[in-house]
Amino acid sequence: MKALRALRGLSTLSTLTQKTHVCSIPLYRFYASEPQQQNPIDTAEDSDDVPAFDSNDYTLPTRGFDSDAKRPKQPTWDEAYRTRADQKIFGIEPQKQSSQVVVQDEEERRATLLAKALLHAALEKPDDVEEEDMVVKEEDQRSLSVGIIGAPNAGKSALTNFMVGTKVAAVSRKTNTTIQEVLGVMTKGVTQICFFDTPGLMLKSSGYPYKTDMNVRVESAWSSVDLYDVLIVIFDVHRHLSKPDKRVIKLIKHLGAQAHPKQKRVLCMNKVDLVEVKKDLLKVGEEFGDLPGYERYFMISGLKGSGVKDLTQYLMGQAFKRPWDEDPITLTEDVMKNISLEVVREKMLHHIHQEIPYTLDHRLMDWKELRDGSLRIEQHFITNKQSQRKIIVGKNGSKIGRIGMEANEELRSIFKRQVHLILQVRVT
Ligand SMILES: Nc1nc2c(ncn2[C@@H]2O[C@H](COP(=O)(O)OP(=O)(O)OP(=O)(O)O)[C@@H](O)[C@H]2O)c(=O)[nH]1
Questions:
Q1: In terms of C-beta density within 10 A (0-12 exposed, 13-18 middle, 19 or more buried), how is residue 202 classed?
Q2: Which residues line the pocket of ligand 1, CB cutoff 6 A?
Q3: How far apart are alpha carbons 291 and 295 in whole angstroms?
Q4: What is the ipTM of this complex?
Q5: Atom of ligand 1 at shortest range from CA of 154
Q6: Does the pLDDT at position 116 exceed 70?
Q7: How many CB atoms lie within 10 A of CB 34?
Q8: What is the set of domains in the chain, with CATH numbers?
Q9: Minimal-distance CA residue to ligand 1 atom 12
């Protein structure tokens, strides 16, 4: 092992793990299990030690996996009276008790079958595949590490999400939403592909990478670029057509004409769905088609999926005979923590339109798997300005409430279990 482990060492994922470790500061009044003295929404604007959002204060629709989900309502009337009324008013002869039981059993059986089918579908295990066939021996395993690099907003996260099939990286209309590398894993047959969604690597106008301030993470991404088996360089072809994108030219120049000897480089012209005159794509194809150092180029829409199948097939073909790095089904706790941060961050970016999200410290403070299988996740947004806190919390807690509800709902559907999400906005 493993190029990938070495790569991880370099990647910001490890920084994330350190950054998001469960903090041991006393979180006295944050615990939702304590009786709420006041409605948190009433106080959310003024006090920062009461949870700004606690999913326990909201009624979220229950789902199939909810252990507390109520069974279908039983009749509240007395069956004997109902039978007599049916007989007298509608002339319906009473049914034998035993057949009612049979009908109920049949319904339960069907519900069980449906639940099983849904579980099967969720695990993407085709019906005709036996359990033994799902286990791939280590000596048969093939794997590939893929880095995706491009200017901010080029569509790296959307492409990763589409290929991996679950929402692992925040997708947003704003730039630089990817604050750290998010590992996405796609396992098909004997092949496993690990995707690394790099932060929007930026270049100064001089064509050199930034070296200062928040760009420590960017530096880390630059230094790990050569370690991937395949490097996907992606750019927004729609944007490039309306106004040639100098950042793309600079990025390509910076990477050089020669790929690392152990690496294959491909170019992805993304967002083709936005290009109305398809002939225009030929122009870009001509401009970038023969770039030295690039093995292939693909015209894709990472969001809508066109061309992604070809890209996936190409990547599958590049995989090496090498043991997998990740369990194909179980999400590791670190990945889940990462997903929880990404989902909340994405919702925040969607609802807060000011620039503050980039100056905000966003931390995972507590992660607990409770006895009933549910997850308790507590995250804090930390700012040094009271005014920023007010914007994030919103009037009567409306903003943070929306963010929290949407994130909670999405996390429940990703993790397939109940999630108790607590969001806190603190001023330091
Ligand atoms: N129409 C269309 N929109 C896309 C496509 N790919 C991405 N987008 C949109 O472009 C915006 C940016 O996409 P992201 O995937 O977040 O871009 P990114 O490169 O990861 O951005 P950073 O994290 O800032 O580096 C989002 O609004 C996406 O929905 C595409 O193929 N077609």
A1: middle
A2: 150, 152-158, 171-173, 175-178, 200, 270-271, 273-274, 301-304
A3: 9
A4: 0.98
A5: 19
A6: no
A7: 9
A8: 8-63+330-427 (3.30.300.20), 137-321 (3.40.50.300)
A9: 153
